[in-house]
Design brief:
The protein is globular, with a radius of gyration of 25 Å. The longest helix has 10 residues, at 230-239. The protein has 258 residues and is mainly β. The chain has 2 domains: 18-59, no CATH class; 70-256, no CATH class. The relative contact order is 0.19. Helix content is 7%, strand content 26%. The two termini are 30 Å apart. The strands form 4 sheets. A 5-stranded mixed β-sheet has the order 5-4-3-14-8. Strands 10-9-11-12-13 form a 5-stranded mixed β-sheet. The chain contains 3 helices and 14 strands. InterPro entries: LD_TPept_cat_dom.
């Protein structure tokens, strides 16, 4: 899958090698004892006693997800091997870019899809989401449950198909909301994982909002959710694997870079 540069760029990560100097000597090197011919610089590339080159071991750090600072990275555990990264253009912007990353056990995080255009809440982002504040919560949240009005497109997540995934009315820009909940993935903000996205249990209390989903884009800002085009939603659902404990990492670029 190709990766294109979208209108909003994801910050590139520079990966530097850490060089550890190895030794190619013999027992006579200890304490500089022995004849001069037995002592060589540690980085000497001449053949050793068994005809092998002296070497420098190179350690390459595992790749991290670009644009994420230490505070956000600390919230991603070793068990999380899939990440949907949604980066907002500005703290008050309702437009963002989504990328899918998967963790290789040796090489670290690698991009597997994106960048995709996305929408978030009308007024942008917040560290303290409240009901009806029209801002999307910033943070790292699990993705464990899916559903929609249309049949399961092939996800490994539990999928609840219900007519109740209805989206009547119009959005903030007068656009129709019809079909917005044809496919959704519940974002585990102020909800009980393991239940249908339609479950309205709010562990943090109703005043902290809830019902934050990834759902089908309707061409305008959301009330708090993240939205993707229909084809991208299907791709996302087919990719998510509960065995890899997927998370969504979401917020504006400045907040995610902390």
């Amino acid at each position: 899958m190709s990766f294109r540069t979208g209108p909003f760029q994801v910050v590139a990560l520079t990966v530097a090698g850490l060089l550890l100097t190895g030794c190619a000597g013999d027992a006579g090197d200890a304490g500089n004892a022995g004849p001069p011919a037995a002592r060589r610089p540690a980085n000497d590339a001449r053949p050793g006693p068994v005809g092998q080159l002296g070497s420098r071991a190179q350690v390459v750090p595992a790749l991290e997800i670009p644009s994420l600072g230490p505070r956000i990275r600390a919230k991603i555990t070793a068990a999380n091997r899939q990440a949907v990264v949604v980066v907002g253009n500005h703290p008050n912007s309702n437009q963002s870019v989504a990328m899918l990353y998967e963790r290789d056990p040796v090489e670290g995080w690698k991009p597997v899809a994106g960048p995709w255009s996305a929408h978030n809440a009308l007024l942008g982002w917040t560290d303290d989401h409240r009901a009806a504040d029209n801002r999307s919560p910033i943070g790292v949240f699990g993705l464990t449950d899916a559903g929609g009005r249309l049949p399961d497109p092939g996800t490994k997540l539990p999928y609840d198909q219900e007519p109740a995934f209805d989206a009547p009315g119009t959005g903030f820009q007068g656009e129709s909301l019809e079909g917005s909940f044809d496919h959704v993935v519940a974002i585990n903000y102020n909800r009980e994982p393991g239940n249908t996205p339609l479950d309205w249990t709010r562990p943090l209390g109703a005043e902290k909002g809830g019902g934050i989903w990834i759902h089908v884009d309707h061409g305008g800002p959301t009330q708090g959710c993240v939205s993707l085009p229909l084809a991208r939603m299907k791709e996302l659902l087919r990719w998510l694997d509960p065995a890899k404990q997927p998370v969504v990492v979401m917020g504006d670029a400045a907040a995610l870079g902390r």
